[in-house]
Recover the amino acids of this structure.
């Protein structure tokens, strides 16, 4: 039986790294891409094939996928779009440049890689494209406007792509984690420092709590799960004959999904603001 292949982005840590290790253990040929060369070298030392793919660098998307396809003989069974980052800050304080940058990585890069993979999967007669979104892909939270906007956009594109692929052998799937152990907090710090000036904000006093949460590791969230919880859903999405259109991960995602369906918008806003 031919070994199935998958390209995973954002594999340097957290969800991506656990997925790479878990799928390798499950018998998949894993191409665990990272956006930094040092991380690729580290994963190669673990025995992974690790192409360099930085969603913010269109050339690396092309060359990273080409490297993967050359290794497989031109086929790819699955793509797991995972790499993303956050830029905390009040919406009124977000410069347009901050939104351009986060969309370049969290949306446009994913879209470009997906577009390049679709012809490969169509030609081979099968394939699965799995996008790792978030509970923040369908509900918003204060101070997370840039990330929320990028995930809402991702979900819209994914939903339409899924419908458009209904008459093809390509299945398109969303995974929506809530709080999962990762480095997203630490990785958000340089973006916050680049784009947000809390002292100049009309909300300056409110930023104290944001800064405290951003710079201090207060331990696991009350409902936080390890990245392995996402990998478990990913494996189901990859192997089920009829995968679900979307997979929730963590209690908050299930809870918010239910509340979004039953509550009026004002009530949902009030619930989230008390969280």
């Amino acid at each position: 039986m031919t070994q199935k292949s998958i390209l995973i982005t954002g594999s340097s840590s957290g969800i991506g790294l656990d997925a790479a290790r878990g799928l390798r253990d499950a018998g998949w040929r894993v191409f665990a891409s990272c956006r930094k060369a040092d991380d690729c070298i580290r994963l190669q030392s673990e025995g992974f094939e690790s192409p360099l793919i930085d969603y913010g660098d269109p050339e690396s998307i092309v060359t990273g996928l080409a490297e993967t396809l050359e290794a497989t003989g031109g086929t790819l069974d699955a793509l797991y779009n995972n790499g993303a980052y956050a830029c905390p800050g009040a919406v009124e304080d977000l410069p347009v440049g901050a939104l351009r940058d986060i969309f370049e990585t969290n949306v446009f890069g994913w879209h470009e890689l997906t577009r390049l993979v679709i012809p490969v999967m169509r030609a081979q007669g099968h394939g699965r494209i799995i996008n790792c979104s978030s509970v923040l892909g369908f509900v918003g939270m204060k101070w997370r406007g840039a990330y929320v906007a990028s995930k809402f956009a991702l979900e819209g594109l994914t939903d339409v792509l899924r419908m458009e692929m209904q008459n093809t052998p390509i299945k398109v799937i969303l995974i929506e984690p809530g709080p999962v152990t990762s480095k997203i907090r630490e990785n958000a710090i340089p973006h916050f420092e680049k784009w947000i000036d809390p002292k100049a904000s009309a909300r300056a006093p409110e930023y104290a709590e944001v800064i405290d949460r951003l710079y201090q590791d207060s331990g696991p969230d009350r409902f936080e799960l390890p990245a392995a919880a996402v990998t478990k859903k990913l494996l189901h999405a990859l192997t089920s004959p009829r995968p679900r259109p979307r997979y929730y991960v963590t209690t908050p995602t299930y809870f918010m999904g239910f509340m979004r369906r039953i509550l009026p918008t004002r009530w949902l806003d009030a619930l989230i603001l008390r969280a």
